[in-house]
């Protein structure tokens, strides 16, 4: 059963952005009540609805998720909302890149979607309830940024109420985040299927991220070392080298290359995110490291093909 959140239903607002090619304009929906009405119409027509949640700053990684959504569903929705509760004090909420017009243009140029859901706010002044995940949320990001997954799980739960889609697609760059959301959907028996899409990378291997825009030219040249080290380490582990020494060597390699700090560099299984005693090609390496004030995360399966 879909839960309706009364505090989320504000005045009606649906608008359409202009398109110059004569195609129907993309619909921009800003309230949950209008989103529900639109989805009800689509469902009545037998449509399968696929959601791509984003915080905007649309790049080729998002566009790959959108393209996959179009393959899976007859209706595609992109949500754009910069969620304040996943930023801790002193993090980059205020400076996080926001350009809605550019996001619309990027989505439009890539073929468009059936609707963009862009609420101005998703928390009332009296909001006092949160989803606090455990399990797969506990290690790695759960230690480095203990506020983060509560903010992510809460906003995605709310988003699933605002946009009751059949399927939602998330990128594997944030694999632990996907595992947390997969766990939330299973534990709370939410009526949505969550799918992961492979990480989209630059030609030099750097995972696409909105925060890459923070990197200086010299930092951008250095950033691909992160993924190069993951692949080198994966090959050594699969070749039978001791896991602990491989992780230690990878840490030293990243720091020696010029990174300032490493929050974690771990090998985990892909389901429970537990530390394995022996390696399997499906196990994943996870890393979070700092270049100056920019924190980069990445991960890869040991047996993944090189990009």
Fold topology:
Blueprint: E1 14-16, E2 27-29, H1 32-44, E3 49-54, H2 60-72, E4 75-80, H3 100-109, E5 115-117, H4 141-144, H5 148-162, E6 167-171, H6 175-187, E7 193-197, H7 217-222, H8 225-238, H9 243-257, E8 261-268, E9 284-291, E10 294-301
Parallel strand pairs: 2-5, 3-4, 3-6, 4-5, 6-7
Antiparallel strand pairs: 1-2, 8-9, 9-10
Helix pairs in contact: 5-6, 8-9
List keywords for this structure.
disordered N terminus; 307 residues; 7-stranded mixed β-sheet; 3-stranded antiparallel β-sheet; alpha/beta
Gyration radius from CA atoms, angstroms: 20 Å
Q: Helicity range of the residues?
A: 25-40%
The unreliable regions are 1-13, 16-22
In N-to-C order, the SSE pattern is: EEHEHEHEHHEHEHHHEEE
Task: Explain this structure.
The protein is an alpha/beta fold and about 300 residues long. About 35% of the residues lie in helices and about 20% in strands. The chain is globular and about 55 Å long. The N terminus is likely disordered.
């Amino acid at each position: 059963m879909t839960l309706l959140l009364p505090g989320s239903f504000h005045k009606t607002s649906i608008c359409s952005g202009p398109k110059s090619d004569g195609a129907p304009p993309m619909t921009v929906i800003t309230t949950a009540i209008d989103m529900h009405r639109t989805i009800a119409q689509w469902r009545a027509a037998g449509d399968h609805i696929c959601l791509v949640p984003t915080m905007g700053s649309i790049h080729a990684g998002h566009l790959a998720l959108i393209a996959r959504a179009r393959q899976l569903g007859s209706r595609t929705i992109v949500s754009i909302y910069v969620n304040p509760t996943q930023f801790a004090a002193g993090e980059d909420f205020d400076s996080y890149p926001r350009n809605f017009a550019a996001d619309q243009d990027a989505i439009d140029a890539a073929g468009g979607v059936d609707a963009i859901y862009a609420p101005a706010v998703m928390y009332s002044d009296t909001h006092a309830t949160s989803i606090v995940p455990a399990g797969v949320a506990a290690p790695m990001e759960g230690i480095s940024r203990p506020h983060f997954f509560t903010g992510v799980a809460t906003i995605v739960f709310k988003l699933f109420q605002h946009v009751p889609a059949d399927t939602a697609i998330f990128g594997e760059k944030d694999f632990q985040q996907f595992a947390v959301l997969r766990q939330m959907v299973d534990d709370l028996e939410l009526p949505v299927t969550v799918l992961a899409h492979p990480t989209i990378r630059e030609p030099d291997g750097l995972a696409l991220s909105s925060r890459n825009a923070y990197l200086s030219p010299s930092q951008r040249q250095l950033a691909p070392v992160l993924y190069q080290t993951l692949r080198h380490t994966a090959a050594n582990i699969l070749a039978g080298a001791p896991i602990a020494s491989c992780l230690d060597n990878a840490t030293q390699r990243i720091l020696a290359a010029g990174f300032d700090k490493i929050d974690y560099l771990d090998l985990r299984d892909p389901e429970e995110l537990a530390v394995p005693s022996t390696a399997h090609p499906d196990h994943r390496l996870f890393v979070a490291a700092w270049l100056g004030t920019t924190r980069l995360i990445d991960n890869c399966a040991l047996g993944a093909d090189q990009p």
